[in-house]
Amino acid sequence: MCGIVGFTGSTAASPVLIEGLRRLEYRGYDSAGVAVQRNGQLRLVHRMGKVAGLAEAVEQEQLEGTCGIGHTRWATHGRPSTANAHPHTSCDGRIAVVHNGIIENYVELKEELEADGHRFTSQTDTEVAAHLIEAAYAQTPDLVEAVRAATQRMAGAYGLAVISADEPGAIVVTRKDSPIVIGMGPDGARVASDVIALIDATRDVTVMADGELAKLSPTEITYYNAAGQVVDPKITHIDWDIDVAEKGGYPDFMLKEIHEQPRVIRDTLAGRLVDGTLAIDELDLSVEELNLIDRVYVIACGTSYHAGLIAKNLIEGWARIPTEVEVASEFRYRNPIITPTTLVVAVSQSGETADTLAAIRDARCKGAKVFGITNVIGSPVARESDGVIYTKANKEIAVASTKSFLGQVVSLTLLGLLLAQVKGKMRTNQIRLLFRELADTAAQVESILSDVSAIDEAALACKDASSALFIGRGMGAAISYEGALKLKEISYLHAEAYAAGEMKHGPIALLCDGFPVIAIATQSPVYDKVISNLQESKARGAMIVAVATEGDEEIRKHADHVIYIPKVRDCFSAITASVPLQLLARSIAVLRGCNVDQPRNLAKSVTVE
User: Fold this and answer.
1) What pLDDT score was predicted for residue 379?
2) What CA–CA distance (Å, rounded) separates 499 from 477?
3) Given this model, what pLDDT does residue 241 score?
4) How does DSSP classify residue 40?
5) How many Cα atoms sit within 13 Å of 276 on the Cβ side?
6) Contact, 477 vs 467, CB < 8 A?
7) DSSP code per residue over 150-218
8) How confident is the model at residue 74 (pLDDT cuts 50, 70, 90)?
9) What is the dihedral of CA 378, 379, 385, 391, to 10 degrees?
10) Where are the alpha helices (DSSP H) in 391-427?
11) 76 and 35 in contact (C-beta within 8 Å)?
């Protein structure tokens, strides 16, 4: 992994490839490279570091040619290095491959290929694909058939784009569990692992399905099923604008996306209340089927997992259905109790998270209904679920998720209300009232964003710390987990989160003079308990930063810094209280000189286990 681009057409390939790779930088990477066809040969350029360095090298090398492939790599097999950067080639240098995913049986394949005389020059699993295709091409000199034969021997996940010096103008692509998107522009055919790299050329794209292949030429694209038969593609029209990938006057994408959150809330809720009744037709389950649901699992990773923790509070509180939140990477290995009346809710910003996909496939095999919540139309999670809510966040560029997280929380809140409605646990007028208050959070987030001075002051006080502790109770505990994750992933300041009641069971040992404790202390049924935790922290010298409800002057007696947010019902506090924590993490990261859009070692989309 992490980003694939390819172009074959009537104009120079190198500028198209470089621009496509720039569009994919948000995903995170450590090296980049391109391969271009020219006069019956392949020319390659690899570089460690950013695409800007690759662009300079490509210009110096004067790579000419109208067909090529490119890649940004995030190391999985083999350390970050020029030798391990994609594209990788066959022994004779006449086949080049870029790859996202992991070839799980690459060790066995590599040993077999080496025994047959193939020479390897990298530590990657990807290079195995180049040699497998080379061996197959020697038997059947047709690139489509060679790629198809090679992938039949590969276990794991892959998105592949392949070129051969012997087939000028042709790019062959295929995929399994790793996204590939194809489109025809006015100057030629393009392929990428993300539609953002294609959208300036075309809005009509084909999202490839597992096992499918395609052959791109300058004037046409031919699609094949797993058996090698020609098939008609399904065209998807993209209706969002390219300006979502531009900063729009903000200093970084993260701040831009934080400010887009009121719009995300409004868009996600649009059309969801019809004649006083919630309408989520995408769920694709009848009222009778929903009424039979007696257990809910929310499966997710990272930020999406924290959205699930919030959902657990809402679904159990409103619909009275037992709800468990599972880390997707653990769910599939622990033999959970699943029946036909189990609803599995898969939450994934990208819709391609490998662990989440594996978990929902396992759940479906066991008979569960699966519902997806994702930000990406046509993504694997969307395709493999019985129904889906799209979070309407549009493209999120910064690696640390903000607007997608809030979109997930709003979507899961809708699901909680729907289940309460179907189960008869809430009357229509209650649903209508809660929906209106949920919609009001958009304006309340705008109010928070209008004045961030208190947040910046708290950030200045925290910036030189080596660690921080986030605490809260009830809904505040779930919010704290997300706040701690945001801080550590973009500022590299170590942070942990605990339910505040756990302080005396270990975390309080960390406290000393000036130690930052960030507390969710909004008005709630457990407000007095949180105040007690602040007092015990303050008594041990901690510096308290409290997120509190407007009008609460009492909190100033217990906190060094207070960040006020509008008063909302406790069940909606996750939406408003998360925003200042996002801003606090960003402000601390900026003060520490960190790249908030592309934190080290992280990728936007985790497409391998």
Assistant:
1) 78
2) 5
3) 65
4) T
5) 6
6) no
7) HHTT--EEEEEEEEETTSTT-EEEEEEBS--EEEEETTEEEEESSGGGTTTT-SEEEEPPTT-EEEE-S
8) confident
9) -90
10) 403-422
11) no
* DSSP string for 83-147: TTSSPEE-TTS-EEEEEEEEETTHHHHHHHHHHTT----SS-SHHHHHHHHHHHHHHS--HHHHH
Confidence at 507, pLDDT banded by 50, 70, 90: confident
Return contacts of 105-108, CB within 8 angstroms, 24+ apart: 105/154, 105/155, 105/156, 106/77, 106/156
The structure's pTM equals 0.73
Segment among 71-75, 107-111, 521-525 with least mean pLDDT: 71-75
584 close to 482: Cβ distance less than 8 angstroms: no
Kindly give, in sequence order, each residue whose CB lies less than 8 Å from that of residue 258, ignoring residues fewer than 6 positions away: 402, 403, 449, 579, 582, 583, 586
Angstrom distances, CA of residue 609 to CA of 144, 199, 221, 334, 517: 28, 29, 32, 16, 33
| Range 41-54 average pLDDT | 93
Exposed/middle/buried for residue 557 (C-beta within 10 Å: 0-12, 13-18, 19+): exposed
Decide: residue 12, CB within 10 A, 0-12 exposed, 13-18 middle, 19+ buried: middle
Q: Which residues are catalytic?
A: 2, 604
Q: In what order do the strands lie in the sheet with 323-327?
A: 323-327, 295-300, 342-348, 369-374, 387-390
User: Is the peptide bond prior to 233 cis by the omega test (within 30 degrees of 0)?
Assistant: no
The HSE-up count of residue 522 (CA atoms within 13 Å, CB side) is: 26
Residues in the chain: 609
**Cα–Cα distance measured from residue 594 to residue 583, given in angstroms and rounded to the nearest whole number:** 14
Count of CB atoms situated within 10 Å of the CB of 28: 22
Could you tell me the two tokens for 1? 């992994």
CA nearest neighbour of 420 among 555, 313, 537? 313
Note whether 474 and 521 are within 8 A (CB): no
Residue 339 is which amino acid? T
Which DSSP state fits 346? E
Q: Where are the beta strands (DSSP E) in 228-272?
A: 230-231, 236-237
Q: Is 121 exposed, middle or buried (0-12, 13-18, 19+ CB in 10 A)?
A: exposed
Distance CA 196, CA 23 (A): 6
Which amino acid is it at 416? G
Kindly report the number of other CB atoms within 10 A of residue 124's CB atom. 24
- Give the span between the Cα atoms of 100 and 177, in whole angstroms: 10
CB 392 within 8 A of CB 419: no
> For the chain, first and last CA: distance in Å?
12
- 540-560 pLDDT tens trace: 999 999 999 999 999 999 999
C-alpha span between 469 and 467 (Å, rounded): 7
* DSSP β-bridge partners for residue 34: 45, 70
Antiparallel, parallel or unpaired: β 561-565 and 516-521? unpaired
- Please give the single-letter amino acid code of residue 561: H
Give the C-alpha separation, 154 to 47, whole Å.
27
